[in-house]
Amino acid sequence: MAQPAFSLTDPEAKGLAVVGLTKRFGHTLAVDHLAFEVSPHQILALLGPNGAGKTTTLMCLAGLLRPDSGHITWQGVELGPSRGRQVALIGETPEVYGMLTVWEHMVFVGRACRLEAGWRGRAEQLLQRLGMWERRDLLGEALSKGMRQRLLIAAALLAATPILLLDEPMVGLDPRGQRELRNLLVEVSDQGTAVVVSTHLLANVQSFCDRLLILNQGRVAAAGGLRELLSRHGHETLEETFLEIVE
Description:
Layout: E1 16-25, E2 28-38, E3 42-47, H1 54-62, E4 69-74, E5 77-78, E6 87-90, H2 102-112, H3 119-129, H4 145-159, E7 163-167, H5 175-190, E8 194-198, H6 202-208, E9 211-216, E10 219-224, H7 226-233, H8 238-246
Parallel strand pairs: 3-8, 3-9, 6-7, 7-8
Antiparallel strand pairs: 1-2, 1-4, 4-5, 9-10
Helix pairs in contact: 2-4, 3-4
């Protein structure tokens, strides 16, 4: 399978830039020379079948996995192993501190990130919008998977890192929670955050993502805006386009 032609439109673009990202696990090539960029004020949907390399890519971006080769930069500066001030990752499996309450999680983020005065009001607002304010005194160990997901989303948004990565964030959320999360992601994007969302829920992608990056076997199979991809492949729906690309 030939590597599709794909290069950065502007090597000096200010934002998140990934060039030649490669990651192996033994003899398995999980990510194969990926190249893409995400500008501030932009939401990128990372799509692909199971095993396409989406989660591995996010973990490399977050610094949780060390790539075998490639460069990851923000505003033209290479991101080092410690990039917690620049990148927040919400993983597919929501892990919280079992002996901290919901509110104590928010306090921990506020103090650890040395947020400016007024963060408590922002924390309360986030918990309210995600349906967690009434549960603010519950311990993490008492939360369902969906509640843990909402808490981690609230905490990540409170941290206000310039890069926000989300791996299957809609899983475990009810329709109201999914809609509120979409609204929040659009808001933080409008404020200048570069957002990358990995998901299998194609219907959600169409409603709030600016660009799509489709991976297959660790490589970029297609990239562009929704209308651009539909027009290029001659389909009316993202599902039809996606299936043609990956199959």
